[in-house]
Design a protein that fits this description.
The chain is an alpha+beta fold. Helix content is 31%, strand content 37%. It is built from nine helices and 16 strands. The strands form four sheets. It has a four-stranded antiparallel beta sheet, with helices on one face. It has a four-stranded mixed beta sheet with strand order 8-9-5-12, with no helix packed on it. A four-stranded antiparallel beta sheet has the order 7-6-10-11, with no helix packed on it. It is rod-shaped.
Length: 359
């Protein structure tokens, strides 16, 4: 019986299938590699990696130059860096700036919590036949964190910020007059004044510690601090000014109301309380003749209220005082209110009245 030989077709078929399997796998591998290379060549991967790179070292490289420009009398480098570092705890995002970008260069805006803080520039190059994007430049602007502040205080006060006493380098204006003393200054009297300080070149918020002439200190956010103009007055000088105010006003009202119809005698009574030849002395003496023909009203002074006594400087003092006067007439007694500012001068005889302003 003759045996039938097996054909070689199955072997051929197996070889054929294996050939195509290997070819397809190689094609898939090539395609996968091409896809990986394509993905790697996309700029989004580079910008994503850049956005994730903001660790302490990266931030320090970006901000060290900026921090070096700050006023370290007002703020330490560590404090400034901490404030900037805290900004990066927020949401960092990027957006392509099409107007600045080209086929070979891409520019992205970098934002923190929606605020643009800088930009990064990427360029592409070929490496081993593949296109790679890399960071060519980065620019950051932290000037939006800068702050400034100012304060106006009496010129005798000290101003401190961050433990540093502000000196002439921080002065922006001197000799600022007090509004209520402008008339006196215009007449040539010495008057207290204020000064202004300004600070900048720091981050965040900074206030001031001010110390008055008496050594009292307090913290303030800034602005105008008028202070107490009477703070430099000694207890003894204040008592002397109060006594002179009462004595002078009593005799001055008698003179002006022609008490006893004796203006010359009233002037002689008043004269020891005035600086000889002063403005008030000349004014009162010049009124004697007119009062000679006046009838006596006999005004009565009462309810004297000294609002303030301040030292103007160079031996001059100012007393701000209100009072009431009862004036007799045929219809009865009429009460009126009055207010004056009395200029006093320190002399060998003590305080004497140099001038008087009504208001």
């Amino acid at each position: 019986m003759r045996t039938k030989k097996k054909g070689r077709f199955p072997l051929f078929l197996l070889a054929y299938v294996l050939f195509w399997v290997i070819l397809i796998m190689a094609g898939l591998r090539y395609l996968w590699g091409a896809m990986v290379s394509y993905e790697a060549s996309r700029p989004v991967h580079t910008i994503d990696a850049y956005a994730a790179s903001f660790d302490d070292d990266h931030i320090h490289r970006l901000v060290d130059g900026f921090i070096g420009t700050l006023d370290h009398n007002l703020q330490s480098e560590e404090e400034a860096y901490g404030l900037i570092r805290a900004c990066f705890d927020g949401e960092l995002s990027y957006a392509k700036m099409s107007a600045l970008s080209t086929e070979d260069k891409l520019v992205y805006a970098i934002s923190l919590d929606g605020r643009k803080v800088g930009s990064v520039t990427m360029v592409k190059r070929d490496e081993k036949g593949e296109t790679v994007w890399f960071i060519a430049d980065e620019e950051m602007d932290f000037s939006w964190l800068l702050s400034s502040n100012s304060i106006t205080v009496p010129s005798s006060w000290r101003v401190n910020c961050n433990g540093h006493e502000l000196g002439e380098d921080y002065l922006t204006e001197t000799g600022i007059p007090y509004e209520e003393l402008e008339e006196l200054a215009a007449d040539g009297y010495p008057t207290p004044s204020k000064v202004s300080y300004a600070i900048d070149g720091y981050l965040g918020e900074k206030g001031f510690t001010v110390t008055d002439l008496s050594g009292n200190s307090y913290v303030t956010d800034g602005g105008v601090q008028e202070g107490d103009l009477s703070e430099s007055l000694s207890v003894e000088k204040k008592g002397e000014a109060e006594r002179l105010t009462g004595q002078f006003l009593e005799l001055y009202i008698q003179f002006m109301s022609c008490s006893n119809r004796n203006p010359s005698g009233n002037y002689l009574n008043l004269r020891p309380y005035m600086v000889a030849g002063s403005k008030i002395d000349r004014r009162v003496h010049g009124a004697i003749e007119g009062l000679t023909w006046a009838s006596s009203r006999g005004d009565v002074l009462h309810d004297v209220n000294i609002l303030s006594i301040i030292e103007l400087g160079e031996g001059y003092y100012l007393t701000d005082v209100t009072y009431q006067i009862d004036t007799k007439s045929a219809a009865g007694i009429y009460t009126s209110d009055a207010a004056v500012k009395i200029i006093m001068q320190d002399t060998e005889k003590g305080l004497l009245v140099e001038n008087l302003y009504t208001y």
